[in-house]
Amino acid sequence: MKIAVGCDHAAVEHKNDIRDYLIENGFDVTDFGINENQTIDYPVIAKQVALCVSSNECELGILVCGTGIGMSLAANKVKGIRAAACSEHFSAKYTRLHNDSNILCLGARVIGVGTAIELVDLFVNTKFEGGRHQRRVDMITDIENN
Ligand code: RB5
After folding, report:
1. Which domain holds residue 55?
2. pLDDT tens digits for range 18-71
3. What CATH number has the domain bearing residue 107?
4. How far apart are CA 146 and CA 129, in angstroms?
5. Which of 6, 20, 90, 110 is the most exposed place for a label (fewest CB within 10 A)?
């Protein structure tokens, strides 16, 4: 599975550890940066990762900023993106199962690297349940289109 990762200057260590964890576990990772000693406004990276996912170049994305919220707000402006800011396990799992979320947003100032990696692991290894949830996801797409 191809996964896009990206962060702003508040979250470089989290992003790098998440990237390394995913690579070690056999995922094909595209790293949109940034790296140490750089700064960037989070919408720039959110857009790059969101476009990578919405174009199906990558199946899922992981975005990390200070809170996870700025990244999710920006990524959700891209058509086809369902980005969820999560800070605990239940939400990271159920946003895949029920919402078919395709980007997980994390806050480096909210959770430690260990928890972040556990949430990433749950997110990338959980499949959308479909069924009655498909209808609701389709309703979100309708809002986006109309
Ligand atoms: C950067 O200082 C910070 O505002 C950003 O990482 C993020 O938390 C925004 O939502």
Report:
1. 2-145
2. 999 999 999 999 999 999 999 999 999 999 999 999 999 999 999 999 999 999
3. 3.40.1400.10
4. 25
5. 90
